Amino acid sequence: MSQALARKPDAPALVEGEFAFTANDFAQIAQLLYEQAGITLSDSKSTLVYSRLAKRLRALGLASFAEYIALVSSPAGDTERGAMLNALTTNVTRFFREPHHFDHLRDQVLAPRIAAVKAGRARMRLWSAGCSTGQEPYSIAMTVLSLLPDAPNLDVKILATDIDTKVLATGREAIYSEELISAIPPEARNRWLEKDRASGDWRMSAAVRSLVSFKELNLIGQWPVKGPFDAIFCRNVVIYFDEPTQERIWSRFAPLLGTEGRMYIGHSERVAGAAGQWISDGLTVYRHQAGGAR
User: Fold this and answer.
1) Would you state the pLDDT for residue 3?
2) Where in the sequence is the domain holding 61, given as residue range(s)?
3) Are residues 169 and 271 in the same domain?
4) How confident is residue 98, by pLDDT bands cut at 50, 70 and 90?
5) How far is 235 from 136, CA to CA, in rounded Å?
6) Among 14, 52, 63, 108, which one has the highest count of C-beta atoms within 10 angstroms of its own C-beta?
7) CA–CA gap between residue 198 and residue 195 (Å, rounded)
8) Catalytic position from the list 25, 162, 164, 230
């Protein structure tokens, strides 16, 4: 980790509030976040950074952002660096977001493999990279189950990864409010979710949960991940990275895709640069020209 930037005495406040927060404080936090997670913070995020991290200062009993930065910059601050990442990463998700992706997954990726998987001649592997609170991987699981109800008894696995340990815990619990599950089609809801009559919340059924494994993973760190994958969902994640980091991420996905594998990205994202060997296979759906893993 780099050395903390030099602090200027009596620097003007960047955000007015309970704790002094200067442009230098923001620069140091932005630098730490980039080094730890590859995420780029623009100056327009200063108020967001203050509001989210002020809660951490209160919880830790710290008097200033200077003290907080000293903590997260030190070897003793490993646990709090994780808490900082959790606080500053954005987790916007919903069930069956971009529904055309799940239609494409069902018809173009899963359907051609169903017979082989049923017969035990093939396996099925899918990855939700940047899974947030679990809506995406569970949407993938319900799509699989719509074609293959016996998937929990077959060689079918869905990997769900995120850098934020709090959202991973929510995903593992698999409990969602009535409002959050409103995007799930009624037929799938009735078949694959269970309602708690006391709370009114819904939980994914054991069959759905059994398909998904939640793991902590930093996309700019090591990937203890083995392919080949039939599909990789990495949607609305790399928009927080600078262009060179985006290109590295796309390039690292390529060899993990199967020969017929597809990658699904966010509607505002594009694969480009050194990873320009991707071939469009639908709206924000790609195949790799090299064919992926074999």
Assistant:
1) 44
2) 23-88
3) yes
4) very high
5) 10
6) 14
7) 9
8) 162
Whole-number Å distance between alpha carbons of 224 and 226: 7
Assign residue 84 the CATH number of its domain: 1.10.155.10
Q: Is 58 a catalytic residue?
A: no
68 in a domain, yes or no? yes
DSSP 42: -
Is 172 found in the same domain as 119? yes
Q: Read off the pLDDT of residues 157-195 as tens digits, 9 standing for 90 and up.
A: 999 999 999 999 999 999 999 999 999 999 999 999 999
Marked catalytic residue, from 52, 123, 189, 191: 52
Beta carbons within 8 Å of 134's beta carbon, 6+ residues apart: 160, 167, 170, 171, 172, 174, 204, 212, 214
Say whether 162 is catalytic: yes
pTM beyond 0.70: the answer is yes
- pLDDT score for 45: 84
Structural domain contains residue 8:
no
- Is 7 domain-assigned? no
Is there a single domain that holds both residue 121 and residue 42? no
Surface-to-core class of residue 78, CB atoms within 10 Å of its CB (0-12 exposed, 13-18 middle, 19+ buried) = exposed
* Percent with pLDDT over 70 in the chain: 90
Q: Identify the sign of the CA torsion 116, 118, 119, 120.
A: positive
Q: What does the pLDDT read at residue 4?
A: 45
Q: Determine the average pLDDT of the residues in 141-155.
A: 97
In a domain, 293, yes or no: no
